[in-house]
Amino acid sequence: MRLIQILLLCLWLVSIPVYAQLIPPLPSTGSMNWGNWSFEWEIGDENKEGLVIKNVRWNGTKILHKGSLPVIRVKYRGDSSSLGDGCGPYRDRIHEGNISFLPGQLTPVIGRVFDDQIFEIAIFAEIGGYDIYQAWYFHKSGRLEPVVYSSGWSCDKDGNEDGHGLDHKHHPYWRLDFDVEGNSNEVWRIRTKNNNSVEVFKYPEEWNSWKLADDKSIAWTINKPGSNSHVLIRAPSNELRDEGGSPWFHFSSKDMGVRRYHSSEDEGWIFDWDEHLGYKNPEWLPGEDVNGKDIVFWAVGHLSHQWTQADEDNPEWHSTGLTIDVVSRTAEILQLTQMPLHYTERELKRRSNNIHAKILQLIQMPLR
Ligand SMILES: [Cu+2]
């Protein structure tokens, strides 16, 4: 987008004080400045990876090289005697061929502003019986949120794909190619247990992690070695991963994976229906070094969708997503690891603004 267009857009935005403000139709490819954010976007058609954001900067500092959604895996449970029961698994991929338009929508990419605080960029797709809305939220406070919304049904109790009636789960896989202050990064995991003890771990090599039943929370941070600037990644509304055995048989069994960056792995979703998040040696071989390296952070969502007659009659929207906070000053130090602890609880509360319930209502509104 040309500078003059951005200026006109900004003038237009500040001149109309409306709660959810639709901005002029966005092209399939473009760039934007919003608050202290700058970024580019494109529809990731080549790899069928949804709405892609690139070169994301906060206050001019590179945070994320590329963020994409290569797949949403879906499984309907059937009678739960094996993973093959029921419908699916499906590998839903958003691309030009299944992008659809909401009432009033003029171009494939939607842009809206909420409360003059949050810029939403999103695409709407129809895949099977689903409506899917994939969005990125840029908060002026320094938060970036990828969110997937879904409504509708693709399978019935007899396994008919044109029917309804079975519980299922959606699992979005976000590929987040972070370059926090450059491409030499380290990735940390912070587990807070139910007894409030905190376990901090720096990933030495390619790894998969998931929230445990006795974790109060799990979070990740990424930083340039030696720097006090971080991104903090959390998914507080995420469900626990699929366990082994009935009914889900480890269908989607991790919450994140850290991988060494390889350009050859910047591609669409190549994995089979029962595979996910490869690019890593088998457990008995050492993974590639990720400490201070160029890394890719995969984040996996788990979203249950239970059948009800009401939901079948009037499909409801369900959503899951991540919060990615840019933390540019050190609040506290975890003494054991010398790692900055990013946030105080008070600061967290100040920054969070509980906008999702409002957005859930608003995405069902006509766009104009
Ligand atoms: Cu669903």
What does this structure look like?
The chain is mainly beta and 368 residues long. It has a single domain (3-362), classed as Copper amine oxidase, catalytic domain (Beta-galactosidase, Chain A, domain 5, Distorted Sandwich). 9% of the residues lie in helices and 40% in strands. The strands form 3 sheets. Strands 1, 7, 8, 9, 10, 12, 13, 15, 16, 20 and 21 form an 11-stranded antiparallel β-sheet that branches. Strands 2, 3, 4, 5, 6, 11, 14, 17, 18 and 19 form a 10-stranded antiparallel β-sheet that branches. Strands 22-23 form a two-stranded antiparallel sheet. The protein is globular. It starts with a helix and ends in a 6-residue tail after the last helix. 38% of the residues are buried. The model is unreliable at 6-18, 330-357 and 364-368 (pLDDT under 50). Bound molecules: copper (II) ion. The site of copper (II) ion has 4 residues, from strand 11.
List unreliable stretches of 5+ residues.
6-18, 330-357, 364-368
The ordered string of helix (H) and strand (E) elements is HEEEEEEEEEEEEEEEEEEEHEEEEHH
Mean pLDDT: 81
Number of helices: 4
Structural class: mainly beta
CATH architecture: Distorted Sandwich
What small-molecule ligands were found?
A: copper (II) ion
Q: What share of the residues does DSSP label as strand, in percent?
A: 35-45%
